[in-house]
Structures are given as structure tokens and as C-alpha cells.
Amino acid sequence: MRGSGGKHSVGGQSQDDEILGKAYDSKLMKRLLSFVKPYKKYVVIAIFMNVVVAALGPLRPYLTKIAIDDYIVNKNYDGLVTISAILFGTLIFQAVVQYFLTYYTQLMGQNIIYDLRVKLFAHVQKLALKYFDKTPIGRIVTRVTNDVESLNELFSSGIVMIFSDVFIIIWILIFMFLMEWQLTLVSLSVLPLLIYATFLFRKKVRESYRDVRFQLARLNSYMQEHIGGMSIIQLFSKEKKENKNFAEINDAHKVANINSIFYYAIFFPIVEILSSGAIALIIWYGGGDVINGTMTIGVLFAFIQYTEMFFRPIRDLSEKYNIMQTAMASSERVFKLLDNDTIIENPTTPITINNFKGNVDFKNVWFAYNNDDYVLKDISFSVNTGETVAIVGATGAGKSSIINLLNRFYDVNKGSIRVDGVDLRKISKEDLRNQISIVLQDIFLFSGTIASNISLGDSSITEEQIVKAAKTVGADNFISKLPPKYSAEVKEKGATLSVGQKQLISFARALIFNPQILILDEATSSVDTETEMLIQKAIEKLLKGRTSIVIAHRLSTIQNSNKIIVLHKGEIKEVGTHQQLLNKRGIYYKLYQLQYKEQEVK
Amino acid sequence: MKRLFTLNKYFRRNKGRLSLGILFILISDFTQVFIPLVLKDSIDALHANANKDLIIRYAIIIFALAVVSGFFRYMIRQTIIVVSRKIEFDLRQDFWTHLLKLSHRYFQNTSTGDIMAHATNDIAAVRMYVGPAVMYSIDTTIKFLIVITIMLSINATLTATILLPLPILSFFVYKLSKKIHKKFTLIQEKFSDITTMAQENFSGIRIIKSYVREAFEIETFAKESSEYRKRNMDKIKIQALFMPLLFLITGTSIILLILVGGNMVINNQLTLGDIAAFLFFLGMLIWPTIAFGWVANIIQQADASLKRLQKIYDEEIEIKESKETDNSIKEIDGTIKFENVSFKYGDELPEVLSKVNIEIPKGSTLAIVGHTGVGKTSLVNLISRLFDTTSGNVLIDGKNIKLIPLDVLRKNIGMVPQETFLFSETLEKNILYGVENLDDKLLLNRVAEISQLNKDVSQFADKYNTVLGERGITLSGGQKQRTSLARALAINPKILILDDSFSAVDTKTEEEILINLKEFMKDRTSIIISHRISTVKDADNIIVLDNGVIAEQGKHNELLELGGIYYDIHYKQLLEEELQREG
Ligand SMILES: Nc1ncnc2c1ncn2[C@@H]1O[C@H](COP(=O)(O)OP(=O)(O)OP(=O)(O)O)[C@@H](O)[C@H]1O
Ligand SMILES: Nc1ncnc2c1ncn2[C@@H]1O[C@H](COP(=O)(O)OP(=O)(O)OP(=O)(O)O)[C@@H](O)[C@H]1O
Ligand SMILES: [Mg+2]
Questions:
Q1: What is the pTM of this model?
Q2: Which of A130, A366, A399 to mutate to test the pocket of ligand 1 (most atoms within 8 A of CB)?
Q3: Radius of gyration of chain B (CA)
């Protein structure tokens, strides 16, 4: 990600967070609906119940009209009781249907987002490291958690509610037209104004919404990163400065929110005013008709109720517009991640290597992380089964990169890598990695227990195996001193362990998986010499018949290697055994001199 | 609920706007309540066959009242909700200010996700209280009082009858909200589990891939997500009762109105216009009734959130200045002394350091060696006060470090922590993190040269403007360490602490850096931790930590003559080579 973009990466925001999303996008919708497919049954039930519920609401004012015109005005008490009973009946029926409607639509929504979330997570597991290099972790987490969550609202309330709102409006119109079509037209005359107001509102809210979202993302990623780096802030006494930085971001977030209040503040009263306007019109126009005797008072009542009913879904629709928009923007981001094909694909018909031996062959390998900034240039070497090869070289020479290639974290740009004579790209990554164990330079522990960090949750690994691996690397010493031993809690990133202890745990992890190829990238860089030697002795036995590749800056750890490769600025400068390289009096010799000069005391 | 009063100081800052907001609510409610009354008059007039002009006048009045009420509704949001955003800002700012003061221990023991949850969810919950909840509860109370008074004055019996179901609604809303809230807490917990799991999985993706644990991780994740779905459905089972109950009870009120009110009209005790007005009033009361339950719930949630926030506020600020802090100290010289220092991480945990005594004269170099986990990092962390000693004192220039202002102390210590943390910023901003002048190119070049970073940087396309990945992910291990070293050098410290800072650096580069540092460290005190004898051999004093005490101490040669642990390490590092030579 060197240099490209990111100039304003203070909060680590990206264009992704700026995706605004339309409230409705047919392509996206189609794709979203494909997730609904397995739950067709629910959709049918929901729509059916929706039609029923939507009709029952508007039915009641109609019954009220009958009650007034036919019974109250005509002073028929028994009739009034009957109609009240009918009203009550429809009410109960509506309540029951409504309950199941909500339940089923939510069930559907929950199932869909479950499917989507697991699918998304599984997809991320497939993505290549190139993707992770360039994407802040927090952002991927947001995709899998919050973005998927906002789709829930779309599925469980959004779509269905919009259906029901539309149905309600249709039913109301039907009832109104049936009762008194002229009065209907009069009361609907405020509609164009309402539609215009809604349209304006949507447009404005859309803009301010983008701003709010953007600022929120900024706020969150700032906090996330700076909580992680709190000790640096404190060690460098930068509390005041970071407080100011935060205030700035916090303020921008506040301003964005206050700006968006304006649109809500003005829109809702306008809807209210228009709705009262409609009632005033009904009184004015309908009143005349009542006076003329062409209309009953009951109709007037019904219309007043209908107007209230009619405006509610419209007002809701604009609120739901928000949900829709959030959901559409989220789905766009989610799909973008699902479509991300930064994946190192397995071959369609992978070759399986039976009886994996562990021969490794690099042939004219060129590799760059970005474009053609080659960090490895024309690398060729081979390691035979059972051999140990060491790679040495200055920092940044490209040692870890070689390992990254062998494990197929990245693919070569030119040349090829073979294991047991087969090109890496022809076997499945899983088969390959199952044969390789790496102790990575960057130590990573998961929160959990010490045991779960060694076994990585693999239930086929027994307690004894865990203890044995820990003993091999000399970690058992300190683990057994902890009161809960192997079930001692490990905090986030292993915060309460010393760095060397963490390294030992990640070393034990590599041994337990019993690999054919063992790769140690500075695996003992933070461990004391005594423990280091102990490990060396212990794994010597383990390594019989296996291949190992060792990267180390402390030359003492690699002298026994069958072959030492000296890497310099991405190129192989020297190859040979320790003795051969010393005799050569080249780079290796110099390194060696440096490390041991003046140290010999006789 | 007492906790909510802690918010008073925030309210006080916005007194003016808030009182205005309340005034607006009053005005808006009063005008709104008039609408049904006018409606009633117009319907009664119609029933009595009044003339058309009167009806038109009524229609106009209704509309005018709506406009006035609407305008003040707008003003209410512009005052009260705006205030709530301002208070949210203050709350969040105070929260962050407090976090900045919390100690290293707190952050080691609390996951980032947890703190983030407080900063987002809890503060949002409190905002809901200070904004919408306050607005609605005032609005509701006022409206209720006015509307019920009017209704009673029209017809007391009818009012009592039709309002009967409303308290039941409030009660149910309250009860259900409470239940839902409980379920909701469970959901939130699961959600945070899912978030944490995703977070850790993505951060450790290299491990997951290396060991082919993807299938297992997906399975675990699916299990968690499924549990999350289940908890959601548990909530929905209750929540789905809301709407039906709402219909049922408000609908019942209307039916009662028609039945009882209708009967009264039949008996000429009431007019049709009254019924219309009541119908309208009922509409006005329904929302406030729901709001009662809802607001009660928000208040509860805000209270719970405040409780959680309060816990963070109550978190002891372990490392702080005290009354005795001597603010006249502006500089330090760099003589360090450990006096009987003991240290442990927790009461129940074993002592890491026991009665350690060290003297590091100004300008000298101390080296620390010792086994993994022996307490080297813990020891140096006491100097920069990431932790304080359990007993005994650390003195600088003869003064207890607790008396030295914290920022004077830390600004004079250049610390290169064992674990490198870099910000996702440019290299330049990372290196100059600790200095005031961010354009000091001279300084930048100087420290990059000392830490041998310049050669690497010259090969980057964007040089010092190269933007790093999170935690510096796009640099090699050695490059990260040297960036962190350069950052510490840049503040021109009196004391330099290198905690195993060359572990990922090759020997040649390390040697070059050490030579450069020799010049830099001339009149500075320095402490170097390392496992490599070659790194520490030139130090003025070397101590060997073992079992929490200083087992050996002296210069390289002296320690070799001693024939103890140090000799052993040296011998072992040498032995390898000897063996090789013979073989
Ligand atoms: N993910 C990445 N994206 C871009 N550039 C990278 C990435 N990882 C490493 N580099 C660059 O590639 C070069 C080689 O890095 P590599 O990690 O292979 O070095 P190394 O020899 O292992 O160094 P060290 O001894 O310091 O660990 C360095 O210049 C580094 O900045
Ligand atoms: N925050 C903590 N809480 C509890 N125990 C801790 C904490 N940090 C370290 N420890 C324990 O204290 C002991 C000393 O740790 P320390 O990090 O000082 O060791 P170290 O000498 O620096 O080791 P290394 O050579 O591995 O860096 C270890 O046993 C470690 O597990
Ligand atoms: Mg340490």
C-alpha cells in the first residue's frame, strides 16, 4: 500500500465508508433477494398476512362510520353494541395476525443474515494476504458485524414494512373512494406537496447521512488504533496532543449530526402541518356537503381517521428510507467484499503428493509486493529432504518474503517454486500448508488459554501432546509455574506474558502439528541462549528425515545447517556450508567476525 | 437512578438552550391541543346546520394552529436534540481524556473491543436519555396534563372509561421493555463475542492460514452466529407482542368511546362533536402513553450504561502525579538508582523483582541479561513508570521518580519497547511522533541515519512519506524495530532504554547502529537489554537477572572471570562456534 492513497489516513477511513447507496438499487436488490430464496415459504406467508392486516386497519374507521350514521344518529343502542362487538373481533384478529407476521418476518431476516454472515466470514478466510496488507482489520470486522446487521433491518422490517405500508395506503384509498370519491380527491390534494417535501427531504438527508457515517467511521478507527497504541502515547507524553486530535474528530462528528437534525426537525412538522391541512380541507369541503345534506357526519368522521392513518405510513416511509439507505449502502460494501477476488486459487484438479518428502526447489524466482518493486530477484536454491537450510542477510533483505512464498501467502511474479518436484501452484494450498509448520517472525497469540493457543482448538490434539510440545521448547518451565497451568488465561495479544514466553508458545504450536517441513523465521530471536540451545537439541531429534528452513540473525543458531544462503537486497550472494563460506571470506565471513570478535577469551 | 444526576453538570452547561426547548414544548403542546377543540366545535356546528362561513373559519383556524405548533416542534428539535449532541460530544471527550490517563495495566487487561463498546454503545445510550428521552418525557407530561384536564371538563365519566385501558398499555410497555432489555443485553454480549472473534481471526490470519485452521474457524464462527440468531429470536418472541398489544388497547379505547360515548349521544348527554374531539384526543394520548413505557426503558438503559461508564471512571488512575510532585523539576540529568525495589503484577502473583538495588551513573551504559521471563522488561518499565514499584524506590538524580512531573520524566526517556507499535501513518510522522516540530527534516535524517533506516527508506518509492499498514505491517521486522528506535532518538532523551531492540536486526546492521549510538549516547544514560553477548559486552556495567534478584554484576571481563551465569551464556554462544570449527 506503499504511497498509494492513504495520505489522509489519520482515521484510516476509506472510500468504502463513503459509499452512499441509493435507497433502492435494482441490481443490489436482485442479489439480496437471492438470499431470500431458501425462505420463499416465509415470504408467501408474510405477504398474505400483510394483505390481511393492511385491510383490517382501514376497515375500522369504516365500521365507525356505520356506528355513527346508522346507530348513534338513529339512536339504536343494540345495533351500537353489535357493531362494537364486531369492531372488537376484527381488532383481536388483527392483533393475532400481526404477531405472527412480525415473528415470521423476523425469523426470515435472522436466517438470512446468518447465512450471509457465515458466507462472508468464510469468504474472508479465503482472501490472500495481499488483501490484509492493505485493509485495516477494523474495516473487515465492520463488514462482518455491523454491515450485515443493518441488512437485518432491511429484511426483517424494511421490505415487509414497506409492503404493508403500501398495502395500507391502497386499502385506505379503496375505502375512501368507495365512500366519497370527491372528498377523497379534496383530501388528497395535499399529496403533491407531501411528495415534494419527502423528495427534498430524502435528497438532503442522503447528503448529511453520508457525512455522519463518514465521521463515525473516522471516530471509531481513530479510537481503535489509539487504544492499541496507548502505551506509545503515554511514553511519549502525547496525551495533550492526542486529546486535541480526538476533539477535532469528535467535533466533526457532532457537527455532522447537528446538521442532520435540521432536516428531521423540519420534515416531521411539515408532515404534521400537511396532515392538519388535509383535515381542514375535509371540514371545509365536507362540511359544506353535510350542510347540503349530501353527506353524512359519519363519513366525515371516517375521513378524519383515514387522513391520520394515511399520513402515518408516509411519514414512516421516509423514516424507513433511512433504513433502506443504510442497508443498501451496507449491502454494497458487503457484496464488494464478497466479490473481492484477491484469492490465491487452488488448481481445479490439484495434484496430491502421496508420501510427501519435503524437497523444496526455488527456480529463478522474482517477487514484488507492489508493481515491480522487486524484493526478491532471481532466487534459485534447493533443499533436499532431511536437510536444514539457513537464510541469513541484512534486515529487509527479503528473508521473510521467501518464506511467504513457500507457504503460498503470495504467488511469485516470475519463476517457480516446487515441492517434491511439483509446482506449488498445482497442489492445493491446504495440502501444502498441512505439510509445513512455520514459526512466524511476528508473534501472534489469540485470547483464550495457553493450551488453546498451542493446539489452535484442534480437538484431536491431546493434553499430553500439548505438554510434550511445550516441554520440547522449554515453555513448560514457566507454564507449570502459573497456577492454572495450561488453562491459564491468555489476554488479547498475550499482553501479560513476556515476549520470549509468547515466542516459545508459538514455537510449541509449530511442533505439535508434526510437519514435514519446519520453517523458523527468527523463531528464537527473543529467547535466551540457554533455552535456545535446549530447543535446538530437542528439535534435532524431531527433525530427523524432515526438511527445515531457518532464518536467524544469531549465527550460532545456524552453524549446523547443511547449507547457508546469504541474501542481500533480494539477491542470493553466497551459498555454502558454514566452513565453505568462512573460507570464502565474503559477506558471511564478515558477519561472523563481527559477532564473535573480542568475544573469545582464553 | 441517582447516577443520572451525575449528568447534571452537562445539562448545566446548556441551561439556556434547554430552558428554551422546554418553553417551546409548552407552546407547541398548547396550540396542538386546541385543534380537537376547534374540530369539536365545527362538527357540533355542522350537526346544528350552521352556515358555511363559520365552517370555513374553523378550517382555517385548524390549519393555523397546526402551523404554529409545527413551527415550535421544529424549534424543539433544534434546541433539545442539538443539546443532546453537544452533551454527547462532552461525554465522549471526557471519556477519552480519562482513558488517556489510565495505566498500562488497565489496557493490558481490557480488550480493545470492550473499551470501544463503551465508547460507542454506552455513550449512545446516554445520549438517548439526554436527548429524546428528556424531550419526550417533558412533552408527554405536559400533553397529558392538558388533554386530560380538557377531556374531564367535557365529560368526566366518559374520560375515565375510555382512558382505563391506557395505564394498562403503559404497564405492558414497561414490563415488556424490561424483559426485552434483558434479552437485548444477552444479544449484545453475543454480538461482542462475534466481533472479538472476527477481530482476532483477521489479525491472526497468517496463523490460521499456515495451520489450515480455516474450516475450524468457520465452524466456530457459524456456531456463535447461530447462537446469536437464537438469542435474537428469543427477543423477537416478546418484542412481537408490542404492536398487537398497541392495537388492541388503543383500539379498545376507541371502541369504548364509540359504545359508551355513542350511548351518551343517544341519551343526549353528549354531542357528536365531543366524540370527534375525544377521538382526536385519544390519538394524541396514545403516543405519549407508549412513550411513557419507552422512556422509562431508555432511562433504565442509560442508567445501566452510566454504571458501566462509571466503572471506567472509577478505575484507579494508578500512575499519576500527587501533591508531593515537585513541579519545579523541569529537567533531569540521568542518574538512576534502584533502592530495594520489589515488584509484582498482582497480589496473588509471584514477585518478579525482589529487593533490587542498582546504580546507573549519569552518562553510563547499563546492560541487562537474563533468561526469558525473568523480569527485564518489567524492570525497565518501572523507570518510565508504566508500572510503579510494589515496594522500594526508583530515584532519578537522587529524587524519587514519583516526585518528578510525569511528562518531564517521560519526555526525557527514550523508550524502545520490546514489542513495536507503529501508527498507520507515514514513516515521517511515526519517527517524529514525540517531537513538537513536525517539519524538522534535519532531525529526521539524523535519527534515521543513526538507526540505519535511511538505506531502507531510500529504496521506498515514497521515501519518508511511505504510509505504513496497521501496526506497521508492511515493513520487515527489522525495519519496524529501527523505526521505533528512530522515534525514541528523535526526542533527544537524557535516558535511552533499548528493550531487546535488535532482536530482528542482523548483526552487521546492529554493529553499525551501536557504533552510531556510542556517539549519540556520550552524555546520556542508557540501558540495553539483550540476549546477545555481542550487544552488551561493551557496557559500563552488566547485570544478570535471575529469580528476581541481581545474580551477577560487573564489566564483561569481570563477569567472565566470575564464571557464573554470564560466563555460561557467553560460553554457550562461543561453544557453538568452537564445535563447528572442530567439526
Ligand atoms: N506486506 C508487505 N507489503 C509491502 N512491502 C513489504 C511487505 N512485507 C515486506 N515488505 C518489504 O519487503 C522487503 C523485504 O522484507 P522481508 O520482510 O522479506 O525482509 P527480511 O529479510 O525478513 O527482514 P528482517 O530481517 O528485518 O525481518 C522490505 O523492504 C519490506 O519493507
Ligand atoms: N502484565 C502482566 N501481568 C502479569 N504477569 C506479567 C505481566 N507482564 C509480564 N508478566 C510476567 O512477569 C514475568 C516477567 O516478565 P518480563 O516481561 O519482565 O520478562 P523479560 O525478562 O522481559 O522476558 P523476555 O526475555 O521474554 O522479554 C514473566 O513471567 C511474565 O509472564
Ligand atoms: Mg522482555
A1: 0.83
A2: A399
A3: 36
